[in-house]
User: What shape does this take?
Amino acid sequence: MKIKDKLFDQILIIILVVSVTNIILNLIIDYPFDANYKWGIMILVTLLVNKYKNKSFWVRFSLILFIIITILPLGWYNSGSSSNNVIAYVFLCTSAVTFLFSGWQRAFFVSLLILMMCGFITIEYLYPDLLITHNPKLVFFDRIIQVPMSLFIVFLMLRQFSNTFHENSEQLNLLNLKFKNMAYFDELTQINNRAYIFEKYTHSIENNQHFISLMIDLDNFKNVNDVFGHLTGDQLLRETGKLLKIHFQDSGHIARYGGDEFIAMLHMDFETFVSKLDAFIVHFKKLEIVNNTGVTLSGGYGVFNHHTLDDHLRDIDIALYKAKKTGKNMILPYTS
Assistant: This one.
């Protein structure tokens, strides 16, 4: 359900509660009975609108317009002008239209409310004899009921607005997080992608962190796809990514660099790296799919000691290229 739909549902409930409560309290304090007509009309109109609330934008528009041009003037007149509490309901209407409408609709309603209040004040000043005058005791009872109720209604409405806002904010944050994860995730291999690893590189360089980069490439991967099929090729990529996670993810970050290339940025000393790399190679050669396809690995690695990431990755790529040219099936360090 959209945020405006939720808010509109709450507004309908509030209108019904206010209408019923006012009728009951007016009867208790012997308020003039004709003051209840407007609340009875509001109950009928609200029930009708609730039935067709999802049919059209204009149903909502018409309800708010009806309240502003009919119920507010009647309430102002029946309550005795300056002694009434219509300003509280004007505030409620202003809050409602601010959340429910936008653009010209919002501007129209806010302008209408301002003009109506100016009109009320002007009529009260120029034609005071036209207004109903209630005895002080009745005015007191009316205000002692209306003021607390108006404040409570304001609280309920603003609380609902706040709850709905926070609920949708949380949903939006979760959605943004999901999109961010999708932007950094390689669906095929179930590991992170190039964008992710570059962000981690940037963070490490900015914080002067020591790291070693490893770039590996599956030798003759195109032949695997051609001979064994793309499903086998995809499985080989997934198995390689899974193996990289097992051996290196606890010490840094890994990602699919592109195609059949993988890259790892590792925060460890050189001796530990060499030991982990040896274990990774041994494990890779034992994979069933590797034995079935005869695929091998080539790669390059090196310690970051440059001013820029481009220079560092160029060195690792040179080491990888040298491994390819030397005969493949080897992972070499960069040597200047």
Q: What stands out?
A: Residues 186-333 form a domain with the Alpha-Beta Plaits fold (CATH 3.30.70.270). The mean pLDDT is 86. The chain has two domains: 3-179, 186-333.
